[in-house]
Design a protein that fits this description.
Layout (H helix, E strand, L loop, with lengths): L1 E4 L6 H13 L4 E4 L5 H10 L6 E2 L10 E5 L9 H7 L4 E6 L12 E3 L5 H12 L5 H14 L10 H12 L5 H7 L5 H13 L1 E5 L2 E10 L6 H11 L4 E8 L4 E8 L6 H6 L4 E2 L3 E7 L3 H15 L5 H4 L13 H11 L3 E5 L5 E6 H9 L24 H11 L3 E6 L2 E7 H12 L1 H7 L4 H7 L2 H17 L2 E5 L1 H8 L7 E5 L2 H12 L2 E5 L4 E5 L5 E6 L1 E4 L8 E4 L2 H6 L9 E3 L8 E2 L4 H7 L1 E2 L6 H4 L2 H12 L3 E2 L1 H12 L8 H12 L4 H10 L3 H4 L9 H11 L10 H10 L7 H8 L3 H21 L6 H8 L4 H10 L4 H13 L8 H5 L7 H15 L6 H16 L7
Parallel strand pairs: 1-2, 1-4, 2-3, 4-5, 5-6, 8-9, 18-21, 26-27
Antiparallel strand pairs: 7-8, 9-10, 10-12, 11-12, 13-14, 15-16, 17-18, 17-24, 19-20, 20-21, 22-23, 24-25
């Protein structure tokens, strides 16, 4: 005989799961023991004919060979079935959805962490194609709806929704859900609920408000879990433990509920022999009094509950003002940092009030610019200590209707917490994936990315930071590239504190030289082994106007990362020994890296630093990112408003050089033209479709010809500069801060190009004529012409000039000319050029032929035949 059983107090999930087993394994009989949920009893009173079951007394236990267990793994909750399994007299299999420890999972156990056990078995029915009637599908649907709280409990999964959808497709009657899952308390249950509300007490354990109710009942009341459920629905309770002692029974029933993910009820009651979910669990404890059970639960809570505390989420250091600060000064500070309020501290550093932005704005509106802050600050302070829990802080904000709470110790302000901080912390707490990302370790990736020498150096940094009490992080682009697996040996460190002082301290261990930059709180350490380490104090930057240099204020890591350009560059890796390798990702950078999305951190990012628009194009192409729509719209707006013109020439050339250093830089130029950046970056220049082919040839020449003497900017921009509007050359010179020599190269090419190309097309030219024409242009523009006129006689003649004649030297020197008695002067250059041209034409091959040529040349000059020389 095969049977299927579940726990006492059979609810819809248990009964539906048992029924599903009978569909999967035909011939299996449902056995119900102990009490039954009233809603289930109501359903079976109407439909029980279709879902037959046996009571424990009706089973011939000697004939049982196989037992299926659903919705629990605890054999002590199974009555006689559990006794048979423990005795090893039957074969058994368990289906459960509750979280279990590794030692609780046997080879006979099938566990999936779904919202309902029924979901596990519906998946099996679906896989095997077992037919279901609408009524059967309805029972299974009731099991899922009940145990997921109509899909509202935090244990609900996508699989539960999928199973419910499947059952609806099989004709399940969703109208039955509200009919049979509503909580209708009996008179006895109502009485218990009243007694709970009268006896309930609250105790703060590790910052968590925990409610207890200890009741002594004359007899066991069925459906106590429904009573507790109704209590949680009607009261604002985070954590509840109902402890029920039954007279004349030597056992205590515990039913617990929690809305906090940090309070894992299944673990706490699991220590007392119970089980369940993280947010709902129960236990039956024998041979102990209710008060003993209560004290043990309190002890377990103190050991296991660790809530997010004020010190974990507060922003620090805090920007403050004094009572004597003027409203005008306070307004400037609020605008500069984007705060909605400021703490007010006295000369001893103790907090005495808060000034809200709205009050400052009103004072400014009424002309009270010079009025002191003390006249308008609020002295009705709501503060918390550093150990206050997130729950306490949230409740304070709601009860007192405040948007920011200072964190205070001994009267001095340590930090401040805003509504945004609380929401962010709660989201991170409630969203497992976000929490998982926030605590991800990149230690293994660090070792894969850096060699042993660099890792030893980072280890030294970590130890020095720990001894000196500094928090130090690896930040920026190198973190991005560590995650992507892209080579990058940069060591950019952020220090929470004085980076310059830390650099000098680090020098004592690494040797070398420190170059400090006090105005920016940064330093460069060149170690004795040749390593460069860039260190910066965690800081907030304020831009007085678009493109202006930033004004710097010390801040914490989060604010430091917030000032950066894109989310993918706003991550940090801790180097502190206790958290070494931990990724700090406050703004979703890892998520954006996985999605290959480029996103700014705030809407004014491009306005504050317009050079970020150029950087966006570089990252988009280099890493295969896509600029997300809102960021792209901000970039285009920045271009339209002319903010790119605010980029200083040196900064512009720096950003352009990074693009031009990439092997496929032409497509970045094309992208910038597509985004209408050219008028602000390259005045007078345009992009032509034919440039793509020209650049392909030009790039191939870079490995053929020696371009070490070239200006890289001119060489790689030669197609643009060689086709620009000459009237804009002055604007281009200013925009790119070009040297006089560079401007002359461009001007000469623009003036002479048409003439030179026309001449080079002539059917007959002497070599010296080709040489003379080509020597008018710099190598940067000759290579451009070679690419532009590829396959033509123009290109052939330029190629010959480059490969045969460009580096040719005269066979004679100035010393040889002295032997002719020629006075030194400009004439030397003229004579030597004539010698070189004759060499190009093949008239001179040796120094002797050169001297003969000079002798003849001088004769002609004396006879006036070459007066033009």
């Amino acid at each position: 005989m095969r049977i299927v059983v579940s726990h006492e107090g059979t609810d819809f999930d248990a009964f539906a799961s048992m029924f599903a087993v009978t569909k999967l394994f035909p011939g299996t009989r449902i056995v119900v023991w102990g009490s039954m949920n009233p809603n289930v009893r109501h359903f079976l009173s109407l439909c029980g004919t279709f879902f037959p079951f046996l009571s424990e007394k009706e089973v011939n236990w000697h004939e049982v060979t196989t037992i299926y267990v659903v919705d629990t793994v605890y054999l002590e909750r199974l009555g006689k079935a559990g006794d048979l399994i423990r005795a090893g007299r039957v074969e058994y299999f368990i289906f459960d959805h509750h979280p279990l420890g590794k030692d609780e999972i046997s080879p006979h156990t099938f566990v999936k962490h779904y919202g309902a056990c029924t979901t596990i078995l519906v998946e099996k029915l679906r896989e095997m194609g077992v037919p279901l009637s609408p009524l059967e599908a309805t029972l299974l649907l009731l099991g899922i709806y009940e145990d997921t709280g109509s899909f509202t409990f935090p244990t609900t999964t996508a699989a539960d929704f999928s199973a419910a959808s499947f059952l609806l497709s099989k004709g399940a009657l969703v109208g039955y859900v509200s009919r049979f899952t509503k909580i209708l308390l009996t008179e006895k249950q109502e009485q218990v609920l009243r007694e709970i509300t009268q006896t309930i007490t609250v105790e703060h354990i590790n910052g968590v408000p925990v409610h207890f109710s200890v009741l002594s009942l004359r007899e066991y009341v069925e459906g106590l879990s429904l009573v507790v459920h109704r209590l949680m629905e009607s009261e604002d309770i985070e954590v509840f433990f109902g402890i029920f002692a039954i007279e004349n029974e030597n056992k205590v029933h515990v039913i617990a509920r929690s809305r906090l993910s940090e309070v894992r009820l299944n673990e706490i009651l699991g220590n007392l022999g119970g089980g369940g979910h993280q947010s709902a669990a129960s236990a039956t404890i024998r041979h102990r009094s209710p008060e003993e059970v209560r004290r043990e639960i309190q002890s377990l809570l103190r050991q296991s509950v660790s809530l997010t505390r004020a010190m974990d989420i507060m922003s620090h250091p805090v920007k403050t003002v004094t009572p004597e600060t003027t409203m005008e000064e306070a307004f400037a500070t609020l605008m500069r940092f984007g705060f909605s309020g400021l703490p007010v501290v006295d000369e001893e550093g103790k907090i005495v009030g808060l000034i809200a932005r709205r009050d400052v704005e009103r004072a400014m509106h009424h002309g009270l610019r010079k009025a002191p802050v003390r006249s308008f600050m609020s002295t009705d302070l709501v503060t918390v200590g550093p150990e206050a829990s997130l729950v306490e802080i949230r409740n304070l904000m709601v009860e007192r209707d405040v948007g920011r709470i200072p964190v205070v110790k001994n009267g001095r302000i340590l930090g401040i917490i805003t509504r945004s901080d609380v929401l962010r912390a709660m989201h991170r707490r409630e969203n497992f994936s976000v929490q998982d990302l926030a605590c991800i370790s990149l230690t293994e990736k660090l070792y894969l990315h850096f060699g042993p020498e660099t890792m030893n150096l980072l280890g030294t940094v970590a130890e020095v930071a720990k001894r000196a009490g500094f928090m130090v992080y690896l930040v920026g682009g190198v973190v991005r590239d560590i995650i992507l697996g892209v080579p990058n040996e940069d060591l950019d460190l952020v220090v929470e504190g004085d980076a310059i002082a830390f650099a000098h301290l680090l020098k004592q261990y690494l040797g070398g030289k420190v170059v400090p930059y006090p105005p920016f709180g940064t330093a460069i350490l060149f170690s004795k082994d040749g390593k460069r380490i860039d260190l910066a104090s965690a800081r907030h930057e304020f831009y007085a106007f678009p493109g202006a240099p930033p004004q710097v204020e010390y801040a914490n890591l989060r604010r430091d990362l917030f000032r950066r350009d894109f989310t993918v560059n706003a991550m940090a890796i801790s180097l502190h020994p206790e958290s070494f390798g931990r990724l700090f990702d406050f703004f979703g950078g890892l998520r954006d890296l996985e999605r290959k999305v480029l996103r700014v951190l705030h809407p004014l990012s491009f306005v504050e630093d317009p050079a970020r628009a150029i950087r966006a194009v570089r990252f988009e192409g280099k890493y295969g990112f896509s600029i997300e729509p809102f960021t792209l719209s901000l970039l285009k707006q920045t271009v339209r408003e002319g903010f790119l013109l605010k980029i200083k020439p040196d900064r512009l050339k720096e950003e352009l050089s990074l693009i031009l250093a990439l092997p496929d830089f032409p497509r970045y130029l094309s992208r910038m033209y597509q985004l209408d950046m050219f008028p602000s970056l390259f005045p007078g220049c345009i992009w032509k479709v034919e440039f793509e082919e020209v650049y392909n040839r030009l790039l191939s020449f870079l490995s053929v010809y020696d371009t070490s003497s070239c200006d890289p900017l001119l060489l790689k921009l030669s197609p643009l500069l060689g086709s620009m509007n000459p009237e804009c050359l002055g604007d281009l010179r200013t925009r790119l801060s070009l040297s006089k020599r560079s401007v002359q190269k461009i001007a000469t090419f623009l003036e002479q190009k048409e003439y030179v190309v026309q001449e080079l097309r002539r059917s007959f030219l002497r070599n010296s004529e080709i040489y003379t024409l080509c020597s008018l242009f710099s190598l940067e523009f000759l290579l451009f012409l070679l690419a532009e006129y590829h396959g033509s006689i123009v290109a052939e003649r330029i190629k010959r000039y480059l490969e045969e004649w460009r580096n040719m030297k005269p066979v004679l020197s100035g010393h040889a000319l002295k032997a002719f008695g020629i006075p030194e002067g400009p004439v030397y250059g003229r004579i030597l050029r004539e010698v070189l041209l004759a060499q190009v034409d093949g008239e001179i091959h040796t120094p002797e032929e050169g001297r003969e040529f000079v002798h003849s040349f001088l004769e002609r000059m004396r006879n006036g035949k070459r007066a033009d020389f």
